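User: Could you go from structure to sequence for me? I need the amino acid at each position, not a summary. Structure tokens:
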């Protein structure tokens, strides 16, 4: 078997025992700041998906980023507890698993599955993409260098006081997955980074290792990460891990169409609380944005069902066709979720949210939030 086809086995003594439940869901935040409303919404969805399907729910702290700070870990977990989101077992911190990542990385190098890449960011930005792959895909520039070319590449790194990155030698294959919410998505796999030039392991690598070794069978996260999923599935196959069920959910955007961010103001739990929002109001807000609370009030006859047909493009990363999720307007003729979802519901706790949670009714399009209106408090928001 050639190097790029090598499958690296995972020693069974390192794997966690299977749970008696159908597996595990998880939420995996990076502690680089306080959660905003979009983070809280995705966390509530990940928790609800897991509990709805009888899975354990685990918390993983992805703290390898040099912007991570211990104080944000405590504040993020505190916000989740305040909302009523619970999890099973202690939190897993990636910073405490570096030895395990090193072991698997060493196995990959020994098998010939990795190669050094000497391309700078500037060079990568100007290089053409690999044939038949999305723009931005790595063209394999350093894949088949001669010994002399590799010596020159290492000298180039030495002069620049940098180290080479390590990429996975893939088989230039296409990966097709069926997302629980978005349907069929397919994309070609390029030779992606496993370890960066600064020595930090890539998100794709550590995420796959952690999900595989801790028995994660369901991953719910923002749809901005959908394009990363084919690479992760390919790596799962190389490392001998099972592929989890995926559900990518829409992001929360501001009225300008940009991803909601803490700099927008009035979007963190503490900021909303200071503006008069109770925890119950915030759960109500999230539930109504998803059509859940509104659906409970309006009755099944008023809830729309999927209407899209065919295959639609999703940016330039791949192709997606509709899945199981509901339409953007979960509350027909009463609430425009695209415009903010201003209906009231009777849902005031995470447990109440879970009782009406139905993945089939989730919207597929982003939730656009008028932050200025949020800042006026729940009475104004829900009066629209």
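Assistant: Here is the amino acid at each position, in order:
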């Amino acid at each position: 078997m050639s190097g790029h086809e090598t499958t690296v086995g995972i020693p069974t003594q390192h794997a966690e025992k299977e749970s008696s439940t159908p597996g595990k869901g998880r939420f995996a935040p990076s502690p680089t700041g306080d959660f905003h409303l979009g983070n809280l919404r995705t966390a509530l969805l990940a928790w609800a998906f897991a509990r709805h399907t009888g899975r354990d729910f685990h918390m993983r702290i992805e703290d390898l980023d040099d912007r991570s700070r211990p104080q944000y870990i405590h504040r993020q977990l505190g916000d989740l507890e305040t909302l009523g989101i619970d999890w099973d077992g202690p939190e897993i911190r990636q910073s405490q698993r570096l030895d395990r990542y090193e072991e698997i990385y060493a196995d990959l190098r020994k098998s010939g599955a990795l190669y050094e890449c000497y391309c700078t960011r500037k060079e990568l930005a100007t290089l053409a993409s690999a044939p038949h792959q999305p723009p931005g895909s790595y063209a394999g520039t350093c894949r088949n260098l001669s010994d002399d070319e590799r010596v020159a590449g290492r000298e180039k790194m030495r002069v620049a006081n940098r180290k080479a990155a390590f990429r996975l030698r893939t088989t230039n294959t296409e990966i097709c997955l069926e997302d629980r919410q978005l349907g069929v998505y397919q994309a070609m796999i390029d030779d992606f980074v496993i370890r960066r030039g600064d020595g930090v392991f890539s998100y794709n690598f550590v995420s796959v290792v952690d999900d595989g070794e801790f028995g994660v069978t369901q991953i719910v996260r923002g749809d901005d990460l959908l394009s990363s999923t084919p690479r992760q599935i390919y790596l799962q196959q190389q490392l001998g891990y099972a592929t989890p069920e995926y559900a990518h959910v829409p992001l929360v955007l501001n009225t300008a169409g940009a991803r909601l961010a803490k700099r927008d103001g009035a979007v963190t739990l503490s900021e909303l609380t200071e503006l008069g929002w109770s925890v119950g109001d915030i759960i109500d807000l999230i539930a109504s944005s998803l059509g859940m609370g509104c659906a409970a009030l309006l009755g099944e006859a008023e809830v729309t069902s999927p209407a899209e047909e065919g295959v639609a493009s999703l940016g330039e990363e791949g192709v997606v066709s509709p899945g199981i999720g509901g339409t953007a307007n979960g509350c027909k003729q009463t609430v425009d979720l695209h415009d903010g979802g201003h209906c009231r519901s009777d849902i005031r706790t995470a447990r109440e949210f879970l009782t009406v949670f139905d993945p089939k009714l989730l919207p597929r399009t982003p939730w656009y939030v008028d932050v200025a209106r949020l800042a006026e408090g729940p009475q104004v928001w829900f009066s629209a």
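One structural detail worth keeping in mind: The first strand starts at residue 24 and ends at 27.
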